[in-house]
Amino acid sequence: MEFSSLPEFNKELRQLLKKYRSLNEDLDLLKERILIKYPKGLPPNIFRVNKLGIQTEIYKIKHFRCKALKHKGSRSGIRIVYAYFPAKEKIEFIEIYYKQKGDRDCDKDRILKYYS
User: Fold this and answer.
1) How much helix, strand and coil, in percent to the nearest 5, is found in the chain?
2) Which helix (H) or strand (E) holds 93?
3) For residues 99 and 60, which has the higher predicted lDDT (pLDDT)?
4) Domain count of the chain?
5) Quick one: DSSP state of residue 101?
6) CA Rg value for the chain
């Protein structure tokens, strides 16, 4: 499986790394333990984002384990959005953010900009 990320994702990751220093290591664990086995999602933790009007498969990870957020486990509040390309065996990370009070939807403008 090949992994890549959008420039916006890299910028958001750098910002979050200032506060959550284990994020790179946690992301590597996610790739090797979950995404390689279940690239098409693993409900209820990883689910497909529908109603975008595009062919690309977009998924959102709601339960992401972050060591820097002790005693939270998979309910860390960090959300990751990615695109899966089955023909190429490729996953491209689109967005990463920390959920504030209410969980907002993914950045649909960014998704449509790159994948429509």
Assistant:
1) 30, 30, 45
2) strand 90-98
3) 60
4) 1
5) S
6) 13
Residues 25-32 have a mean pLDDT of: 91
Angle between helix 23-30 and 7-19 (nearest 10)? 130
Q: Exposed, middle or buried, 9 (CB in 10 Å: 0-12/13-18/19+)?
A: buried
Residue 70, pLDDT score: 65
pLDDT in tens, 60-76: 988 887 776 765 545 56
d(CA 44, CA 65): 14
Q: Residue 64 sits in which domain range?
A: 2-115
Tell me the Ramachandran region of residue 83: left when phi exceeds 0, alpha when psi lies from -120 to 50, beta otherwise. beta
pLDDT for res 27 = 92
Are 5 and 81 spatial neighbours (Cβ–Cβ below 8 Å)? Answer: no
Q: What is the pLDDT of residue 73?
A: 47
CATH number reported for the structural domain that contains residue 102 in this entry? 3.30.2310.20
